[in-house]
Design goal:
342 residues; mainly alpha
Length: 342
C-alpha cells in the first residue's frame, strides 16, 4: 500500500509539472505577442478572470469524480445571479438565501434523478438545462420581473482589489499600472475574486482530501457497485455531489454577474465547455474516481491564459468555444482508450 501511494503521488507530481509547463509556455507566447502580458497587472488579471471559471470547474470536478457531469451548471449559475439581482430589493441576505435555496433544490433534483432513478447524468442535466432556460425565460416577464442590476456590494466583491491602492501613486502614473512601484502592483493584484476563489478552493480541497465525504466520492466514482456492496449509500453521495456542484456554480454565477454589473440569461453560457475542459485538462477522468482539484485549478489557469492568447490574436468567442470543445473531445477519447486498455 505504501509503495502504491508513493507511485501515485509521483504520477500526480509529474502531471502537475506538465500542466505548469503548458501554462508557462502559454504565458511566454502571449507575452511575446504583447509585452504587456509580462507585467504584474496582467498576471493579476489572469487570476481575476480565472476566479469565476475556477468555481464552476470546482463543481464539475466533484461531479466528475463520482462518474457524473452537470450540463445544467451554466443555467444554475445564471439563475443564481439572476435571483440575487432581482430579489436584492428585499435585502441582500434574503436574495442570497433564495439563490442558495435555488441551487440546493436544483442540485438535489439532479442528484436524486441520477442516484435514485438511475438516469444518465448527461441526459438528466441536459434536460434540466432546457427546463431552466424555459423557467427563466418566462420568469423575467412574470415572477422574476425586476431590475437585473447586481447590488453594489457584490460588484465590489467581484471586481475590486482587497486594498485600495489608488491613492498610493501619483496622478501622472495612475493611468498606466505598468509604471506603478512593484509592491503597489503586487498588492493591487490581490483582488476579491482571487481571494474568494482561493478560500473556496481550500474548502474544496479539504473536503476531497481530508473528509469521509471526499473518500466516498472517490469510491463511488471508482466503482459504484463495489461501494454499494460495501454498505455505502451511493445515491446519497451522488445527491450531495450534485448539490455541492450547484452551490459552487451559483457562487461562480454571482461572481460573473458582479463582474458584468448586470445579469442576462446568457450570462454563463460560454463557461459551460471551459468548466468541463478545465477539469479534464487537470487530469480528472470523465469515468470517475481519478483526479483532484489541484489539477483543475491548473487547468483553469491554462484555459484563462489560452483565452488571453486568443484575445491577443483577436479570435472570436466562437473560435474559443471550438478550441474548448476540441480539448474535451480529444481528452475524452484518450480516457476511453486508456479505459479499454485497462
Amino acid at each position: 500500500m505504501r509503495s502504491f501511494k508513493v507511485l501515485d503521488e509521483s504520477r500526480i507530481s509529474k502531471s502537475m509539472l506538465s500542466l505548469f509547463g503548458i501554462l508557462f509556455i502559454l504565458y511566454i507566447v502571449t507575452g511575446l505577442l504583447d509585452p504587456y502580458n509580462f507585467s504584474i497587472p496582467a498576471i493579476g488579471n489572469i487570476f481575476y478572470l480565472a476566479a469565476a471559471l475556477g468555481l464552476l470547474a470546482a463543481g464539475q470536478t466533484i461531479c466528475m469524480l463520482t462518474g457524473g457531469i452537470d450540463l445544467s451548471l451554466a443555467m444554475i449559475a445564471t439563475g443564481a445571479a439572476f435571483i440575487v439581482s432581482v430579489k436584492s430589493s428585499s435585502g441582500l441576505p434574503i436574495a442570497l438565501s433564495l439563490a442558495l435555496l435555488y441551487c440546493v433544490v436544483i442540485g438535489a433534483i439532479n442528484g436524486l434523478a441520477v442516484g435514485l432513478l438511475g438516469m444518465n447524468p448527461l441526459i438528466m442535466t441536459l434536460g434540466m438545462n432546457a427546463v431552466l432556460i424555459g423557467v427563466f425565460t418566462v420568469g423575467v416577464t412574470t415572477f422574476l420581473r425586476g431590475s437585473s442590476t447586481v447590488p453594489d456590494l457584490l460588484i465590489t466583491l467581484s471586481t475590486a482589489s482587497i486594498i485600495d491602492t489608488s491613492s498610493w501613486v501619483s496622478e501622472s502614473v495612475s493611468a498606466d499600472p505598468r509604471s506603478w512601484p512593484v509592491f503597489v502592483s503586487i498588492i493591487d493584484t490581490l483582488t476579491w475574486p482571487f481571494f474568494i476563489w482561493a478560500l473556496i478552493s481550500a474548502v474544496v480541497l479539504f473536503i476531497l482530501i481530508k473528509t469521509g465525504l471526499g473518500r466516498l466520492i472517490y469510491a463511488v466514482g471508482d466503482n459504484a457497485r463495489a461501494a454499494r456492496l460495501a454498505g455505502v449509500k451511493v445515491w446519497q453521495v451522488q445527491t450531495t455531489a450534485y448539490i455541492l456542484c450547484a452551490i459552487l456554480g451559483g457562487m461562480g454565477g454571482i461572481l460573473l454577474g458582479g463582474q458584468s454589473g448586470a445579469v442576462a440569461l446568457s450570462l454563463a453560457n460560454s463557461f459551460l465547455l471551459p468548466s468541463i475542459a478545465a477539469v479534464v485538462i487537470g487530469g480528472t477522468s470523465i469515468m470517475g474516481g481519478i483526479g483532484n482539484y489541484k489539477g483543475t485549478m491548473m487547468g483553469t489557469l491554462i484555459l484563462t491564459s489560452l483565452s488571453s492568447l486568443l484575445t491577443t490574436l483577436n479570435s472570436s468567442e466562437a473560435v474559443k468555444q471550438m478550441i474548448y470543445g476540441a480539448i474535451v473531445l480529444t481528452l475524452a477519447w484518450i480516457y476511453a482508450k486508456i479505459s479499454e486498455g485497462a
